[in-house]
Structures are given as C-alpha cells and as structure tokens.
UniProtKB/TrEMBL annotation:
<dbReference type="GO" id="GO:0018580">
    <property type="term" value="F:nitronate monooxygenase activity"/>
</dbReference>
<dbReference type="GO" id="GO:0051213">
    <property type="term" value="F:dioxygenase activity"/>
</dbReference>
<protein>
    <submittedName>
        <fullName>2-nitropropane dioxygenase</fullName>
    </submittedName>
</protein>
<dbReference type="InterPro" id="IPR004136">
    <property type="entry name" value="NMO"/>
</dbReference>
<dbReference type="InterPro" id="IPR013785">
    <property type="entry name" value="Aldolase_TIM"/>
</dbReference>
<keyword id="KW-0285">Flavoprotein</keyword>
<keyword id="KW-0223">Dioxygenase</keyword>
<keyword id="KW-0288">FMN</keyword>
<keyword id="KW-0560">Oxidoreductase</keyword>
<dbReference type="Pfam" id="PF03060">
    <property type="entry name" value="NMO"/>
</dbReference>
Length: 325
C-alpha cells in the first residue's frame, strides 16, 4: 500500500492517474483504471456532443462503481466546442473530479466548486501551476518535456520541472510525462510530487480501445521515436514518429505554414490510426515513455505492478542504501 495526500484529496486508492486522451479516454479504459484503484479520466471532447458525454459517463458507471473523472481540454479555436454545455453534462452526471488542460480553467471553476467537483489542472510550466493554485484548483498535474501531446514551449524535463513546481505549490502535485513504472513513481515522490499521471503507458494496455497494431508499435518504438510537430508555430505537440509526422516537421521547417499541413494533421486521420491500426494514416500522440514500454498488460496488472515495484524499491534497495556504513 502506497498512499499520499493526492489519494485523500481525490478519493482514490493509489496515487496514479490516467490522463485524458483524445479518442482513447473512453469507458472501457477509464472503468478499468477505476477498478484498479487509480484515477482515470474520460475525455470529454472525444464525445461529439455533451449529450454523448453524459451517455459515456453513464456507460462507465455501468462498468464500475468506483470514482472516475472527466478531462476537459480547453483549446483556443475559431469555432470552440460548447464548453459550458460539456461542463454542465459533467456536473449533472454527478462526476466529482475533472482534469482541465490546455488553457486557464478559471471560467469553469465557480460552477465546478459550487457542485463539489474537484479540479486537477494540467499545465507545463511553474508559472502556470502557481497561477492555477492561486485561482483555486485542488491539484496540479505538471507535464514535463517528455510527455505525449503538448509539452509547451519551455522544454524543461520533469527532473527539474517537478521539483521546481512542487516547492512553489501547496496543493497536491502530480508528475506527468515519461512515467511508466514503479521506479518512476518513486522518483516522482522523491522530487516532491504526490503521484504520477500517465498517458502513453495506459494507451499500451489491453483495455485501451485502440487497434492492437498501435500498442505493438509502442512496444517496438524506442525513446527516439517521437517527433515534435508545430514547433515553429509555438504550439508544439509530441507525437509518434511516422511518415506523416516527419512530413509535417519537414514542411514547417522549410517555411510552410499551418494551411500547408492542415490536411495531414486532422483529428479524423488520427482517429483512423487508432480505429483501423493504419499507423501512417495520420498523427497520433505518444511520448518518450515508449522507450520504457515492453509489454501490453491489463490495466489491473499494470497498476498492481507499479505499486508493488515502488514499495519494494523504497523498502528494499533504497532502505538498504541508507543502512550502508
Ligand atoms: C493518445 C494520447 C492522446 C492525448 N490526448 C490528450 C487530450 O485530449 N487532452 C489532454 O489534456 N491530454 C492529452 N494527452 C496527454 C496525456 O493526458 C498526458 O498528459 C501525457 O500522455 C503524459 O505523458 P506520457 O504519455 O509520457 O505519460 C494525450 C496523450 C496521448 C498518449
């Protein structure tokens, strides 16, 4: 048993989070994470409408009676999704934990707070973490440069970013980006975090609702097999290396602009990768963690293994190192 104040604040057994994942954070995965005693997040925008999100929450409840949350990724966009209606669907469905990401969640906090919903805000810099605490979030999840998805533009890996943030915050801190196992959990705790969040590792589990070829590709990939796309646009995203992501990097490096890559990076293409297992259909998020992933376990086995390995490390190798004369 390994428990931290993160577990007390967010009402879960283990200090392990499955971060929101577009097209992946569905009831099959999230209910398995909940059953394993960790905190899983359905991804709101994977559902086409707020009504569909309410139905997905209900479907997840049929699969587990343990707590789970919803990720609300707030992206600046010309035609934004109806965020207020997604928020209402979350509240009316009785979900008590939300992971916000992408943008300042301030506009949503009063409603969430009024309904007793805890907010874990995910960000990629100390300044945004400090701001999130100031506006009243209940916990902060910090993505280091290693992470899948959007690492921000500061390029600070977790080894420095996590302790730099932890020493400035009083709310529970979750370390995210590059975590896959018990060693990572112990390292995160040592750096001042209260838990870990994982994306790529949970993507490569039996219950993740994606084609098996995607999982096999993660196992085959090393830590070298990611691309940072959209760098010149200052909207960096870390994705799996494939013919499409390499082409996007090349076009932008040679002076191309977003319209020149728009068709390559559509969500519909990325979705095809996950649904059909066509690994070169589009871009798909994956992090440096790929280099530490060698198998496709069930979520239950994965969480049990991480907790057991962390406990053995602390009471075994690390305790023994302290006893050395
Ligand atoms: C396939 C995939 C899709 C993701 N989609 C989202 C998303 O929609 N919103 C979000 O906040 N984070 C998203 N993320 C980021 C994860 O929640 C998490 O922060 C990140 O994966 C942590 O890094 P790791 O992959 O090294 O564990 C995604 C990650 C992956 C792998």
């Amino acid at each position: 048993m390994l428990t931290t104040r993160f577990c007390d604040t967010f009402g879960v057994e283990h200090p392990i989070v499955q971060g929101g994942m577009q097209w992946v954070g569905r009831a099959e995965l999230v209910s398995a994470v909940a059953e394993a005693g960790a905190l899983g997040f359905l991804t709101a925008l994977t559902q086409p409408t707020p009504e569909a999100l309410a139905a997905e929450i209900a479907r997840c409840r049929e699969l587990t009676d343990k707590p789970f949350g919803v990720n609300l990724t707030i992206l600046p966009s010309i035609n934004p999704p109806p965020y207020d209606e997604y928020r209402r669907a979350i509240i009316e469905s009785g979900v008590k934990v939300v992971e916000t990401a992408g943008f300042n969640p301030e506009a949503h906090l009063p409603e969430f707070r009024a309904h007793g919903v805890k907010v874990l805000h995910k960000c990629t810099s100390v300044r945004h973490a400090v701001k999130a605490e100031r506006i009243g979030v209940d916990g902060v999840s910090i993505d280091g440069f290693e992470c899948a998805g959007h690492p921000g533009e500061d390029d600070i890996p977790g080894l420095v970013l996590i302790p730099a943030a932890a020493r400035r915050l009083t709310v529970p801190v979750v370390a995210s980006g590059g975590f896959t196992d018990g060693r990572g959990l112990v390292a995160a705790l040592a750096l001042g975090a209260d838990g870990i969040s994982m994306g790529t590792r949970f993507l490569c589990t039996v219950e993740a609702p994606v084609h098996r070829r995607v999982k096999e590709q993660i196992v085959a990939h090393s830590e070298l097999d990611t691309e940072l796309i959209f760098r010149p646009l200052r909207n960096t995203a870390r994705v799996a290396s494939n013919s499409v992501s390499r082409k996007v990097v090349d076009i932008l490096r040679e002076g191309g602009e977003f319209p020149d890559v728009r068709d390559l990076v559509t969500g519909a293409r990325g979705r095809k990768v996950f649904e059909d297992g066509d690994l070169d259909a589009g871009i798909w998020s994956a992090g440096l963690a790929q280099g530490l992933i060698d198998d496709i376990p069930t979520v239950g086995d994965l969480v049990r293994r991480i907790v057991a390995e962390a406990g053995e490390l602390i009471t075994g190798r690390l305790a023994a190192a302290c006893r050395r004369p």
